[in-house]
Every structure is written in structure tokens, then in C-alpha cells.
Design brief:
The protein is of the alpha+beta class and about 240 residues long. The chain has a domain of about 90 residues. It contains 4 helices and 15 strands. The strands form 3 sheets. Strands 7, 8, 9, 10, 11, 12 and 13 form a 7-stranded antiparallel β-sheet that branches. A 6-stranded antiparallel β-sheet has the order 1-2-5-6-15-14. It is elongated, with a radius of gyration of 25 Å. InterPro entries: DUF2993. Pfam families: LmeA.
């Protein structure tokens, strides 16, 4: 009985040491993955990385990670010298294969969500008033959730020197195309005077490029929400490092 008890004690101690070693290893790996992800994109903040699955060391032996979760509270995604504030990003990278001490890593699939606040998306619209007709100028002054998958766009107009008493409102449909969030008015606002459609759409329609996401993850869908647009992101054979 004493020998059995001693054996059990040894097993428990070894098991505890294994768990400690496993957690130390996963903490180190999470830091390495975070560094690689930051280097692969144009983020100006450190991502939080969580490697799921236990034990971690057996995944390392197989040179693959089942599920890596990446979270970033906010960062500036920069493309072609222009940036947009991403209010939050959460993504799962699955089937991550690595070599060379994480110097090379590729995820089979990636999916998640990101968010851009309306105030930040508004910066993509023309900030200065546009002459849409003789004596008529207008500009976008606000964006908000219009319900039913629409963005409500508020337009301030000035007709012959007099500002309209309240902003005009139009509902717009947001889409994703070529890495851009595009906002297009479903119907044009009435300015009380005949105006060419293309001139009005210079105000109501705009797009925001979103680049610099970790590992080349791409935009797939955009949905208006209360505080901003929720963007679905995804990718396959996503190169994280190397």
C-alpha cells in the first residue's frame, strides 16, 4: 500500500510538473504568435493571442495548432497611406501549421469579426460641402443604424445661402468589394431643386479601404449595428509569418 501511495504521489507530481511546463510553453508560444501577427500586418498595437487545446505540447510535437484566437481591442488599419480605426477585431485561426520556431506559420482557415464605429466611417465621406447645383451645397454630417441592414445617412444642405432646418436622411446599403466597405444610397434625397444624380452621389456614396489586417485576412460581409458596422472577415491558407 505504501508503494502504491508513493507511486500515486509521483504520478501526481509529474502530472503537475507537466501541466506547469505545458502552460509555460503555451504562454511563450502565444507571445511569439502575437509578435508574428503584428509584424505581418500594419497594426500599431499588440494583439492578444489565446492558443486553445490541451495539452499544448502534443500539438507542438505535431507542428500544428488546432485553434488560435486573436483579439485586438482597437488599432489603425493602414492602406496606401490612409488609415481607419478598427474598434475591435476577434478572429479564430484554425489548423495553424508552423516550423522554425514559429518563424513560418500558415492557418488553413480564418474567420472572425471586426467593427468600425460610425464616427470613424464618416471620415471616409467628403468632409467639405460639395456644390451639387448652382446655389446648392451639401455634405454628409452623420451616420447611424437605419435598421433592416441599412445605414442612415444624414445630409446637411444649404440652398441659396440658407441652411435647411434639419438634415436630410437617406437609407444606404453597405457592401464589401475589393477590400472596401462601400456605402451606396438606396434613393437620393430631395434638395427641392433638380440636381444631377451623379453630383448627389458624390456626397451620399463613399467607400473606405480596410487593409493591414493580421495575416492577410480579408473582408467578406458588412452589417450595420448600433454603434458601427460589423465586418465579417475570413481567409484560407492565411500566411501568418515567413
Amino acid at each position: 500500500m505504501r508503494a502504491l501511495r508513493n507511486l500515486l504521489i509521483v504520478v501526481v507530481v509529474l502530472g503537475g510538473l507537466f501541466v506547469i511546463a505545458d502552460r509555460l510553453a503555451v504562454n511563450f508560444a502565444e507571445g511569439e504568435v502575437a509578435d508574428r501577427l503584428k509584424a505581418s500586418g500594419s497594426m500599431n498595437t499588440d494583439p492578444e493571442v489565446t492558443i486553445h487545446g490541451f495539452p499544448f505540447l502534443t500539438q507542438v510535437v505535431g507542428s500544428g495548432l488546432e485553434d488560435v484566437e486573436v483579439s485586438v481591442k482597437e488599432f489603425d488599419a493602414t492602406t496606401d497611406g490612409k488609415s481607419v480605426r478598427i474598434a475591435g477585431l476577434n478572429a479564430h485561426l484554425r489548423g495553424v501549421e508552423f516550423s522554425g520556431g514559429f518563424s513560418q506559420a500558415t492557418a488553413k482557415t480564418a474567420e472572425g469579426t471586426a467593427r468600425i464605429g460610425y464616427a470613424d466611417l464618416l471620415k471616409a465621406a467628403r468632409p467639405d460641402p460639395i456644390d451639387v447645383a448652382p446655389g446648392v451645397t451639401a455634405k454628409v454630417v452623420g451616420l447611424s443604424d437605419g435598421g433592416n441592414g441599412k445605414i442612415k445617412v444624414e445630409i446637411e444642405a444649404e440652398v441659396f445661402g440658407a441652411t435647411l432646418p434639419k438634415p436630410l436622411e437617406v437609407l444606404s446599403t453597405p457592401t464589401v468589394q475589393d477590400g472596401e466597405v462601400r456605402v451606396k444610397a438606396d434613393a437620393l434625397p430631395s434638395l427641392g431643386i433638380k440636381v444631377a444624380e451623379d453630383k448627389v452621389r458624390e456626397i451620399t456614396d463613399f467607400q473606405q479601404k480596410v487593409g493591414g489586417l493580421p495575416g492577410g485576412i480579408e473582408l467578406s460581409k458588412v452589417t450595420p449595428a448600433k454603434d458601427g458596422v460589423e465586418i465579417s472577415v475570413e481567409g484560407s491558407s492565411v500566411r501568418l509569418a515567413g
